[in-house]
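Researcher: Good morning. I'm working through a list of sequences from a screen, and I'd like to move beyond sequence-only analysis. For each chain I'm collecting a predicted structure so we can compare shapes side by side. This is the next one on the list. No need for commentary yet; just the structure.
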Amino acid sequence: MNIQNITIDNLLEYYLRLLTVEGGGKWSDELRDACDAGEYTAGPIIALAACEDQGLKPDRQVLRATLASPWCEEGSDADVIACHMLDAAAYPNP
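Model: Good morning. C-alpha cells for this chain:
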C-alpha cells in the first residue's frame, strides 16, 4: 500500500472495517455516520480515538497516511492520537 495512493475515503473505510471487525462495533455507528456525511475530520478522529480506546492497532502505513492527509493538521486531535499510536508504547520493538 503506497501512502500517496491512499485517499481519505480509503482511510475512513479502513477504520470502519477495523472497528467493526476487530473492535466489536463499539464506535462503528459514529464513524459510519461521519463517513456518510463526509465529515472527514470528525470521522478519523472518532476512529483513532476508538482504536486507541479499544487497544486496536491500525497498520503503520495507514497511520502515516492519516498523518499525511491534508485534514490532519499538526497539533489536531487526529495528529496527536495518530502520533501517539505510532510511538514506541503503541508499537513496541520486537
